[in-house]
Amino acid sequence: MKKISIVIPAYNEEGNVALIYQKIKEVFDGLRKYDFEIIFVNDGSRDNTQQKLEELSQHCDKVKFIEFSRNFGHQPAVKAGMDNAHGNAVISMDGDLQHPPELIPKMIEKWEEGYDVVFTMRAYPKQISLFKRKTSDLFYKILSRLSDVNLTQGGGSDFRLLDSNVVEVMRKFNEDDLFLRGLTSWTGFKQTGINFTASERASGQSSYDLKKMITFAFTGISAFSVKPLYIAAYLGFLFSVFSVIGYGIYVIHSIIAKTEISGWASLIMTIVFFGGLQLIMLGIMGIYLGKVFKQVKERPNYIIKNKNF
Ligand code: UDP
Ligand code: MG
Fold it and tell me: Which residue ranges does the record assign to the Glycosyltransferase 2-like domain (predicted)?
């Protein structure tokens, strides 16, 4: 019997774990051909998530949990689940029921058809703020432009099925800044996508605020592309050429017209402009340097305090 591992990162999801377990169980009751395990990764929750997980795992041997020593973030939590999964396929999904378990049979169907990666494309329902929808779309457009990974718009949901072959490959990555959705695309295995509409959180609050989203966007872009570094070099070159030509024109003009080169305002503006430009470029360099710094330390992505399997 083939086994499906469901990986669920959980950060302050005390109100949702029992609910999502119930839903998944119902789905697999209708899929008699498959065995399953649910691996909850408690990412340093501050509420009673751990207690709920322990209760749940006592009632049901399909429920497994991994407890982190502190909050390491969503991506490391998914990685930890994949590192510890035993199934022939691994499905990662959010613990707040925004990823409908009803989609699982369809994902498995695609997997049986021979796809190694079944990702999901999220369409946002009306309730989700226009701002979040637009920023998310914009992010994937920029990322696809800037890097070599091709992410379909909205392909950014972490609701995804991976064949054990792919999981095997993913385990070998020891990147510090994990960006799993880019990595799965990068591996080049046979992929397909299915659409779904995200629902609202069952309970609790989203922990992805604007600041986290922006950080995540930078992580994604800098993990897959050194193009921003080239942009810095190109822009520097372009502006040098411009300034040499501009300077030449001024000098020639002042000789012909027999005037002095004037205009303090324009001078100051130029200085400010280049000052800004240099700071931006320094910042970009800094982001990459920071990544190298973090990577050379080779710290683990996460630390497990406790697990029940
Ligand atoms: N999550 C996590 N660690 C964190 C933040 C979130 O494991 O530091 C989990 C969370 O429990 C949920 C999933 O990641 O299962 C998605 O988080 P959330 O719903 O807050 O994000 P959104 O759906 O708003 O993008
Ligand atoms: Mg959510």
Answer: 5-142
